[in-house]
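Sat 14:20. Reprocessing the chain from the morning session after the first attempt stalled halfway. Input below, unchanged.
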Amino acid sequence: MRAIANFLTSLIFAVWLIVIATISIQNIQPVSLKFLTFQSIEFPFGIVLTFSVVAGLLLGGLLPALPSRIQRSQVKKSR
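Finished this time. Tokens:
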């Protein structure tokens, strides 16, 4: 059962990589990000997309670990 779960995880990750690569190749024009009054330099769309996906994966992997640490520290303080 564990082998199937690992295979499905790898398959989903591989499909995401293929989709990101395909979108990046098809949209090669540079883009500039704007936030309030700030504007970045122009980057190729693929680089912006890749950094966004990596940031999302890292945050998605790290955020579930935070509540368990908070709960553990609260339990230790109450004892």
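The longest helix spans residues 2-26.
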